[in-house]
Structures
1.
Amino acid sequence: MQAQESSRREWISRGEADTVELAGYFAELSQPGTVITLDGDLGAGKTRFSQGFAAALGVKGVVNSPTFTLIKEYQGRLPLYHMDVYRITQDEAEDLGLDEYFEGAGVSLVEWASLIPDLLPPARLSLRIEHAGENGRIVHCEGIGAPYARWVADLPRQQESNQNGEPEDGKA
Ligand SMILES: Nc1ncnc2c1ncn2[C@@H]1O[C@H](COP(=O)(O)OP(=O)(O)OP(=O)(O)O)[C@@H](O)[C@H]1O
Ligand SMILES: [Mg+2]
């Protein structure tokens, strides 16, 4: 088997707006069959990312955490399949038939995807959000395979001021 091409970058988020900006960038690039996985602690911003992503995809209305429903479907420029696999076992997840979604006409966003490693497609955009203070986050982006490796390699450069570690709201 050939090794998959991959690229990694960190996106510094100083507040929700930066997370939403990143979500918008990836939403623009999305196409039928796009798979994006989201990991990170409770409250890291996986759902906030998903909301920004949905808005950029043209979804109208409220996008909530699908923790109890497991999968919610929305319609934007493309269908959006928003999943949260936090509460299920790998066995239960197998019965959901996730491949149907991953290979479907829409975009799949999977919160807590690292809990079901064996069920994920090899080519995907993997995002891991790490807390860095109250409103700061580091989004570790890894694009595995085409076209995701290119998406990550082409991430826009962020403003210099992002690197200063200044709190966005001015609070110490
Ligand atoms: N830079 C940031 N990016 C994203 N969210 C942020 C940021 N700073 C603060 N927040 C806040 O962090 C919270 C993130 O909550 P969210 O529900 O998106 O987390 P989650 O990763 O989905 O958690 P869970 O695993 O419980 O579903 C929100 O209240 C949001 O306002
Ligand atoms: Mg969530």
2.
Amino acid sequence: MSKFTFEEVKKALKLDEKSEIWEKDWELSEESFKFGELYFLEENYVGKSCDEIKMKPEIKKLILDYLPVFKSNIALQRLIWHCHYITFVIAKAKKPDIAAWPTEPLDEGMFFPLFFLSGIDFIKKHNAKLGISEEITIDSLVDLELWIIVYKEVTGKWGLRQKHWVANAFLGHIYKLGRLQFKFDPFFIDLNVYRNKKDRRIIVFPYDGIEFRKDGQFNGADKIRETEGIWKSKLEIKDGFIYGNFISPTGIATPEIKKIMQSEWDLILKRDSRCLSVHIPATGPMDFAQCGESFRRAIEFFPKYFPEYNYEGFFCDSWLLDPQLEQYLPAESNVIKFMKEFYNVPVPDAENTVFFRVFGKEQLDVKTAPRDTSLRRSIIKHVENGGRWRDTAFVYFAEDFNWGSQFYRKMWGM
Ligand SMILES: CC(C)(COP(=O)(O)OP(=O)(O)OC[C@H]1O[C@@H](n2cnc3c(N)ncnc32)[C@H](O)[C@@H]1OP(=O)(O)O)[C@@H](O)C(=O)NCCC(=O)NCCS
């Protein structure tokens, strides 16, 4: 059969110039492409794969119903083969490549879900080699279905946009251990975490010279840059002491300078430290005990299966850590109980993802937004009061695991 060039595929599928990222490796997948013979587009394979990763029947049906779109479409088959081949056969395409692939117009429809389903064997083998149970492998793939559902909630259509995120699961970058997911990530905030060698307390200082607002947020957080009331952090080591601005475990940076003796404290975390980021997939409520159990498992799992990674701590960056939620939600809310377990810290350039995660929209129209849950009512009320929401982060350490103890807050008398 004659070759189908990248230019021809690009034209046939009306892809924009972003798609040229595929061009450089196009020939690699040329020889092995067999039009009409892609096993992962066969009904049998697709049905079985959806069952294997425990997809809801309606999502499975949706994917199966999409298969005829490929039937006589040589360009689409050639492209999905290319994606499959460079990712799951020769493992040349990595997460940043997948993230850089064009999202539109392929996000609408089941192109990306079928691409990911074609990678089930790849991730199963990858994890089996490491000794990771198939149960964990399969559970970790739940993101595929979840992000198909989000696409529908946000656009009203079926498809998948978050290929860069779903790729984590299929490439072995993220593991779901019970309720929570854990992903290999460097720490991303300019702050130092110190631990006292004797009493094991921890304290968090921002780097030197960072501009904070009077509300204890990085100047520029939630896209607000203030000119009044701002202050600059100091971090100084002098005469055997470390001087720094105290960040309270409730996630607020303060102008208060604390002085600690250098010889008594270890620096245990800083920007780029090897960490595990924590994620809460939308699989239902985040039961507090289940979340604790996830941490217990993670503390066991990562040193056992990834001993060379030797992570230094956990962190999370999320809308649900915004300490302002405490003013609205009851103490027994899962979100509040969760937040209090950690040392919360502000986030530079903090975005506001709460509207998207709670209302499915980037912007909130308080007049029309639904008020059916206490969380939604709280978010609306705060905005009506002139308040702003912004994502907050936490740091957490395996050594401090004692779920339910609110260790860091108690440590600082909060
Ligand atoms: C994170 C999540 C599991 C928390 O849900 P939860 O365990 O029910 O949380 P809480 O117990 O604190 O809920 C308090 C109230 O808010 C409601 N609520 C929680 N999350 C909600 C959401 N995303 N949208 C609307 N309402 C929500 C609950 O139904 C409850 O309402 P009620 O008091 O009227 O009964 C849930 O918000 C979710 O699945 N979000 C999507 C995934 C996500 O945002 N992950 C974090 C990404 S960084």
3.
Amino acid sequence: MIILRKDKLNLVEPDNEVMRAPPALYDFTNEGESAPGISTVLFERMKQLGGVGLSANQVGLDLRVFVMGLGETKIAVFNPEIIEYSDIEELFNEGCLSYPGIVLGIKRPIKIKATYQNETGQIIEQEFNGLTARIFQHEYDHMNGTDYTDRVSKFKLDYAKKKVEKCVIEGKVVDTDWDRMHTYYSKIYPNIIAQLEKEAGITAKT
Ligand SMILES: [Zn+2]
């Protein structure tokens, strides 16, 4: 049995192939890390990172699994399919743990109906409204090898990145996880990061 530890679940780069292809179905008959085991470490890691949803492929696990929740309320979702969308849509600002600081206004249906398996393998059909419908659909994008940045124009995405760049230049902290922030920003803003490191005397751990 593989023993997953939450502190070993590191976020992968958004262009990593595990995030750019639909992950494999979770097989409940397979020996391996148990479903409750996977959902528990994912949920703990999600809370540690300060998110309200986390997909297995965001931390490098090629599994059609995500968790979501607020506080101690955990919803573990295995092998999801969205089967109905409401006609009414709503624009809402979304963030993603894989893109620290990037906030994008995304239009999505306010209500969905989905089927999935819970951590005991039981098939659930459930309606989600409001914030849970929002989070479900965001994570569901990850299950299809896409994400929220694919839902906006290049102009909108560049603008959001520029806003983050401004925060970095002004020294406003947009993420408390320096290691993660560094890995991400060093790719898109190498000069700024180098300058910040010099000023702050920070040497990034690689
Ligand atoms: Zn996300």
